[in-house]
Write a structure and sequence with these properties.
alpha/beta, Glucose Oxidase, domain 1, Enzyme I, Chain A, domain 2, TIM Barrel, eight-stranded mixed beta sheet, eight-stranded parallel β-barrel, 23 helices, 16 strands, globular, binds phosphoenolpyruvate, binds magnesium ion
């Protein structure tokens, strides 16, 4: 059994297709016709760009618009003038095109892979991919082709490059195993978008797994089993069958309203990270968007996105969701969310420092660009504004004052917007929880961000393994906090939702019904499952469960009781 990064859920059983990259080694030769050598490079580059453009079109045709965006980085690195000048310079110095390409792209590769920021490090993979494409053409070799594979293939590759996935034969790939890549790598993003089970960063996978081996990949656990015994195989087949049956059974919950067993209506919406994700929200039958993490627009850019760019993105989501609610969170930067070009100062403790609404209120002109874009989008759908990391009422008051300024500016420009746009707060700090009554008086809605609330309440970093035992919603401290937030919102008569991961936790959903949560915002693939669980509980049953767990003193007792009660 090999272990790696659990990058995309699901069980894949099939035959290994081990794709080893072609041998691109060469003997550097001294050249005497630099112009001819430059022409070879230009021809290889033009061919590479044309092939990449064709791939981008195919990806778009397959509904992979966001992933197609990743491929445009290849075109940028393929056509970059700085790189071309380096290559030409080397050729003028008597070096062959293969060597000149290797030197130039290796320089960029080394630069990106040495950067601290993971997003920049991921760019190194793009640079390497372009180098392979150019070298393969110069040397007349074929790069790995995953476009026609036999049924039930388990693709085993050193690295799953974006250009390989562009043509991947989705119907025949049972799972993917790679030797590199983390959960946020392009490979992981693409596997999840295609719903192909995947385990990444399995050391020496292409050596240890042989072509033709029978392989079982468990994408949720991050395990790869080669040559399973008959019993193991039967076990996994059973598990895969169960997963498929569960998925099929959930279809009964498509197109029906979200209600508890005694008919109380709930709102079930999706968390999205970019405008194209709205398609997944619609496909999975979400009733709107409960959290659009707008920082992805800022992370994917090289500089602050303009009002027009932001407006286009927000409008796209508003139009796609028709008249359903779309809650867009204003920029949440800092802490676990880095945006390199913003040059946030290095801090001893960034999670408690200069981030999210603190940064935005300190840069009001920048913030107003986003607020104007949001207001403009509100003319095209039910767009609401949500403020992250609130800790005191002043922050909400300042945001509201800025929104009023923006409205006046738009009036002066004669631009339409919804004058009654709702402004809500994320409740994700212990401070916001403690003043939930005060906030509820001046906000239109709450959305509880348990991802941060749990961390800040338990003083346990959400990404730190050593304190992971403290980080869960079953902690009595977290339960008390949630009960208070939801109770205060109910009292004030404002909508209260939850957009942290706990909203999709099957064990936790009845607790949230008992507390009185109105809205559940979960990842798109979790929508139908959440609707099913909500439908299984009456308020009375959920209340009884809450009454019971609130008497417990440890998270272990709470979790055990929830497991015992699960339907
Ligand atoms: C949260 O903190 O629960 C949340 C939804 O926001 P993020 O995970 O983006 O911090
Ligand atoms: Mg948060």
């Amino acid at each position: 059994m090999f272990e790696g990064v659990n990058a995309s859920d699901g069980i894949g059983i099939g035959v290994a297709q081990v794709a080893i990259a072609p041998d691109l080694s060469f003997e550097p030769v001294k050249i005497d016709d630099p112009e001819a050598e430059k022409a070879r490079f230009v021809a290889a580059r033009d061919k590479f760009v044309a092939a990449t453009e064709a791939q981008i079109e195919r990806m778009k045709a397959n509904g992979l618009e966001k992933e197609a965006g990743i491929m445009t980085a290849h075109i940028e690195f393929g056509t970059d003038d700085g790189i071309k000048d380096m290559v030409f310079g080397s050729i003028d110095g008597g070096v062959c095109a293969e060597q000149a390409v290797t030197e130039a792209y290796d320089m960029y590769y080394n630069m990106f892979s040495a950067m601290e920021d993971e997003l920049f490090r991921e760019r190194a993979a793009d640079v390497a991919d372009v180098k392979v494409g150019l070298l393969a053409d110069l040397l007349g070799k074929e790069v790995v082709d995953l476009s026609s594979l036999p049924e039930n293939s388990i693709v085993v590759v050193e690295e799953l490059t974006p250009s390989m996935t562009a043509d991947i034969d989705k119907d025949n790939v049972a799972a993917i195993v790679t030797e590199t890549g983390g959960r946020t790598s392009h490979a992981a993003i693409i596997c999840r978008a295609l719903e192909i089970p995947a385990v990444l960063s399995v050391a020496e996978a292409t050596k240890n797994i042989k072509p033709g081996d029978l392989v079982v990949v468990d994408g949720a656990k991050g395990t790869v089993l080669v040559d399973p015994s008959d019993d193991e195989l039967a076990d996994y087949r059973e598990k895969a069958k169960k997963l498929a049956e569960e998925k099929a059974a959930l279809e009964a919950f498509r197109g029906v309203p979200t209600k508890t067993a005694d008919g109380i209506e709930k709102i079930l919406v999706a968390n999205i990270g970019n405008p194209n994700d709205a398609n997944a929200a619609v496909e999975h039958d979400a009733e709107g968007v409960g959290l659009f993490r707008s920082e992805f627009l800022f992370m994917d850019a090289q500089e602050l996105p303009s009002e027009e760019e932001q407006f286009a993105a927000y409008q796209k989501v508003a139009l796609r969701m028709k008249d359903q609610p779309v809650i867009i969170r204003t920029l949440d930067v800092g802490g676990d969310k880095e945006i390199p070009y913003m040059d946030l100062p290095k801090e001893e403790n960034p999670f408690l420092g200069y981030r999210a609404i603190r940064y935005c209120l300190n840069n009001p002109e920048e913030y107003k660009v986003q607020l104007r874009a949001l207001l403009r989008a509100s003319a095209f759908g039910d767009v609401k504004i949500m403020v992250p990391l609130v800790t005191c009422i002043d922050e909400i008051r300042k945001v509201k004052a800025l929104v009023e300024e923006c409205k006046a500016e738009l009036d002066a420009r004669g631009v339409k917007y919804n004058p009654n746009i709702e402004i809500g707060t994320m409740v994700e700090t212990p401070a916001a929880s403690l003043i939930a009554d005060v906030l509820a008086d001046e906000c239109d809605f709450f959305s509880i961000g348990t991802n941060d609330l749990i961390g800040y309440t338990m003083c346990a970093d959400r990404g730190q393994d050593k304190v992971a035992y403290l980080y869960n919603p079953y902690q009595p401290a977290v339960l008390r906090s949630l009960q208070r937030i939801i109770g205060e919102a109910n009292k004030a008569g404002i909508m209260v939702g939850m957009c942290g991961e706990a909203a999709a936790d099957p064990l936790f959903i009845p607790v949230l019904i008992g507390f009185g949560l109105d809205e559940f915002s979960v990842s798109a693939p979790s929508i139908l499952k959440a609707r099913r669980i909500i439908s299984q509980w009456t308020k009375e049953e959920a209340d009884a469960l809450v009454a019971k767990i609130m008497t417990f003193k440890t998270d272990a007792e709470v979790k055990a009781a929830l497991q015992a009660a699960a339907k």
